[in-house]
Amino acid sequence: MAKIAFFGLGNMGASMAKNLVKAQFNVTVFDLVGSQVELLAEAGATPSNSVKQAVESADIIISMLPAGKHVESLYFDQDGIVNNISAKSLFIDCSTIESSTAKSIGAQLQAHGHRFIDAPVSGGVAGAAAGTLTFIVGGEKVDFDEALGCLQAMGKNIFHAGGIGAGQVAKICNNMLLAILMAGTSEALQLGIDNGLDPKVMSDIMLQSSGRNWTLELYNPCPGVMANVPSSNDYQGGFLVDLMNKDLGLAMGTAANNQSVVPLGQLAKSLFQMHGNAGNGNLDFSSIFNAYKHG
Ligand code: NAD
After folding, report:
1. Which domain holds residue 245?
2. Are 271 and 291 in contact (CB under 8 A)?
3. What is the distance in A from the centroid of ligand 1 to the CA of 10?
4. Which of 92, 175, 181, 210 could form an S-S bond across to 247 if both were Cys, CB 3.0 to 4.6 Å?
5. Single residue among 163, 188, 220 that ends a domain in this structure
6. Among the atoms of ligand 1, which is closest to the Cα of residue 125?
7. pTM of the prediction?
8. Strands (E), 85-209
């Protein structure tokens, strides 16, 4: 089986690496936080205390880092992967980063004889733990095929969106739409409430009418309408406002690069930014519902 070096053992990466170990892959791990490396060693991964040690004879490199600058630094710094790996490897970056950065990283790796796919995920911390993530991949088909085995150990739905960078574009298009749907659903529900309607009855009506959408079906933002969703748990857990703002920022950057017209995305970005700036960054993104409530 392929030997994997896994970098970035945070909220997402730790569970993803554990699932690779469970699937019998030979996994070496590295993170800047030593306690995270120890946690994975307890789960059966091989710990390493340097990038150089981690990449020794690795066939596949996986990274799950906060942002593009971290991925570039890990790959290309003097003490980074490219300067310390002898094999020609397949790099899989699962972080959510700018599509343009993914393309630039891919070109630089190819110049060194390596291969690269961008493989951002949807499904959050719960999906990472359960091994049910959706992977949205950009890259050559042959590299996608090579990555499939280890992606299937961490996820349930694996899509090939197109060439390098396409995974990132598809991911932020989806999340921009999700932000718009969540804000729109909150707005409609509050309009009904302001006019004396019961939000549960409103939700049932819209679910059987043309306003039906994912947030009404599975993630209702109004507390008490649906059990086992963040809105019924003080908006704890789920997908944080701060992370939605990061993805909306990436969407706006991508739009600016191509003169794409995204008025609803821009409005959603402003709404979620105001909401985050008001101290709600660590709440689930469905808490945007509170922004529509009367004071
Ligand atoms: P996180 O901050 O919890 O973890 C990132 C980890 O990377 C940290 O442990 C950090 O120490 C490590 N790291 C940073 N630089 C490093 C380096 N040079 N070498 C080794 N390790 C390094 O972040 P997360 O929540 O796991 O998210 C990771 C990525 O996944 C982000 O791009 C995020 O946007 C995306 N994402 C997150 C979620 C979610 O719900 N958390 C959902 C989908 C996508």
Report:
1. 169-292
2. yes
3. 5
4. 175
5. 163
6. 40
7. 0.95
8. 90-93, 115-118, 121-122, 133-138, 155-162
